[in-house]
Model the fold of this input.
Amino acid sequence: MEWESVIGLEIHVQLSTQTKIFSGAPTAYGAEPNRQASAIDLGMPGVLPVLNEQAVRYAVKLGLALGADIAPRSVFARKNYFYPDLPKGYQISQYDLPLIGSGQMDIELDDGTTKRVGVTRAHLEEDAGKSLHEGFEAMSGIDLNRAGTPLLEIVSEPDLRSAKEAVAYMKKLHTIVRYLDICDGNMQEGSFRCDANVSVRPKGEREFGTRAELKNVNSFRFVERAINHEIERQIEIREDGGSIPQETRLYDADRNETRTMRTKEGADDYRYFPDPDLLPIEVSPAFIDDVRSDMPELPDARKARFESEYGLSSYDAGVLTASRELADYYEAAAGACDDPKLAANWVMDELSGALNKEGLGITESPVSPQRLGGMIQRVTDGTISSKIAKDVFEAMWAGEGDADTVIEAKGLKQVTDTSEIEAMVDEVIANNPDQVAEYQGGKDKLLGFFVGQVMKASGGKANPQQVNDILKQKLG
Amino acid sequence: MHDKTIAELSAALAGGDVTSLELVEAYLDRIRRLDASLNSFITVDADSARAAAREADARRQRGDAGPLTGIPIALKDIFCTEDLKTSCGSRMLDNFAPPYNAHVVAQFKAAGAVILGKTNMDEFAMGSSNEASVYGAVRNPWHRDAVPGGSSGGSAAAVAARLTPGATGTDTGGSIRQPAALCGISGLKPTYGRVSRYGMVAFASSLDQAGPMARSAEDLALMLEVMAGVDERDSTAADRPVPRYSEALGQSLDGLTIGLPKEFFGEGMDDGTREAVNAAVAEYERLGASIREVSLPSSHLAVPAYYVIAPAEASSNLSRFDGVRYGYRCQDPQGLDDMYKRSRGEGFGPEVKRRIMVGTYALSAGYYDAYYRKAQQVRRLIRDEFVQALAEVDVLMGPTAPTPAFDIGSKSEDPVQMYLSDIYTIAVNLAGLPAVSIPAGESGGRPVGLQLIGDYFDEGQLLNVADQFQRVTDYHKRAPAGID
Done:
């Protein structure tokens, strides 16, 4: 039987506000345990939450980016459960009246087509703290620094049909939150976390199968592997005539397997009810307009603009807009020269290669986009050849200054003096009589040989076009 | 001196007749001598009180004194006080000294009031008799075998016995007004949102409201001026100016319309209470008010709706008491579940556990619609009826409690009978309205309270109406025997 998988994702995005969602404590990562937890984060008696407006602003930003409904009135609810790192015994979240309603996002599939994925809702909530299980002998430690960090939980429709689509969706959302600058996107530190709901059904059937929820699959690679593994597991059970219990499963990256965390029979009843300590969030049209006026250009629009404005291919524009930082870098480099296509090639090939080799991000590049653009301009204006440009790039990477400085210091300026080139051409012709005879006998391919010899003689500095022209003329 | 009201003491301090330190020493002495038989204080903070009194006297020397500078007050032990035990009447918080002051506490300190100590209360404010305190029952100064009412029973008894001229209380379903009535003092529950809840240990967040307890309406006005106001730490606190309530007293009641909700005069009311309330109504007619009957037809639903909503919120609010970060933790826990179960099982008393269970049940999947949602619908209905009635009359009037103080132990085994002692006060919390209870005579030698209910944020008028009554009666001046 042919099976179809059905996947929906719940992604928790940590909003990069300066302070927590309901207290004035800072949100910075990595402080000593419990140094960034106020009385409110600690759930002390009598203290009260006060909503951080910045978190609402960020959530609305995402809502606008997803073309989603922004609720004029939404409500915080308490999700009640006991856990040592949940200080109040409840998490302040949103339940039946979320801030962001239904929206959508387009993802590109491998075959180049675009798929529209529905977003069910997105709601604000507070993060919990962390339990520490090492170094406390028979006890556990609690670190509440993270408690109260604002989260936006974004729930997709079950529109995804493969692990690859799920990854494409996750990557696109990651790109968008980075573009909006509402999340630092750091997956190791847990700023962008994913749970996946996975089920399978016989192809063509309308009913969904029973789903399993995969918890905390927190890298693009693991999401793909975990979902694929889960799909195979479910198909195997179904084909053996078994049924899938509704349950929550944990992905073990080391063993590449999922295992039961809790079943539906043991499911918690969270006893949601509206939080009486907080007023409903009222979002006015003026507020939405204000947020809209502050919206950056989003990846889809930027990609389209790169194609039309810089004449880039759809593929190149897609690569260069995959992150806001990369796109910013590219635009700065393209702006510093006259050949945006050449700039695109340099950013995607030489620069990306060098960065990958050193394990650096685009913002950590030792060569600034202005310097890269300046160097490309020297190629465009004929000062150096493309080949020499690679040496100049290496020197700039090593910190030897901008392109002009390197070219000057190393004497890399292209030779364009016709008489100088003519002299070298003459010498090459004189030294290779056999090849000259062959060429003149009709073996046109040998032109490349002569060009190579002249370039070699010039130390790579001769202008290749001129060499070509003069050779053709002299060889007749 | 101890028989004077806050207004009188304030004048005496201003006139140099007495110093704050002398006042504080006098009240500390009374507490030492008299409270053993009342049990109205959990903590007396004598050293800090003396230091604060000296500071208040110095402030007065500098010419920087306000009406409450140097005035001793007591705080219900539900208000967080920095570095001073805040127990909520519970074993759970017997070891708890918060690192912050409640907004109300900070306001009193800023005004120069002197905090004598923390008063006894029903555990986590859950009770109507002050028998549900881990520190033992409080006795009614008028009749030592009777309860003082609750949950602010310690504050009411302390004010009635002249152990403090004023005290704070909190009122979730009548916890200021009912003990004020049973102890023969005055108590105000302000409009929900009038006073910040920051630092007040939460029982039912949508109903809890702090208010003043004192001997006269004028004193309530002076205290409310300090307590009320916006606080950015409480999202539900109203951002409205605070009138000078004490300066708005003395207005004639000519033309005032008083509504008597007929549902407040039905079955179950004690005869003496009915006579006292009727006499008070007649007094108001003599003061120029016109009286009409009004109807609040859903009143009978208030107690059942309250006993869904309040426990539901409480079940969630009290989840933070888990033995992890502060408060009671059981000895030698065998793992996490054991720590939770025994810390909460041993830390909470029976009434608190009962309400946590009721509230947890009401919020459970499959029961939410039948209980919590239905109760919220009833709540809206009750509020709408009040709003409609208050569009027709200026103030609503009736008894505060159906009976005067009952004997200790007489209802403690029957929660429903206990809950019914708040039958006239609970609806007001559901509606979020302000209401005051003032002394209006007695029944069988025990004080009777008259309840006045006003429109939202109309505490000024409410206090004036109460004050006018006190200008022509002396019920509020009567003192119990045996407190000299």
In short: The first helix of chain A runs from residue 53 to 65. The interface with chain B takes residues 39, 42-51, 78, 80, 82, 84, 87-90, 142, 269, 271-273, 276-279 of chain A (CB under 8 Å). The mean pLDDT of chain A is 93.
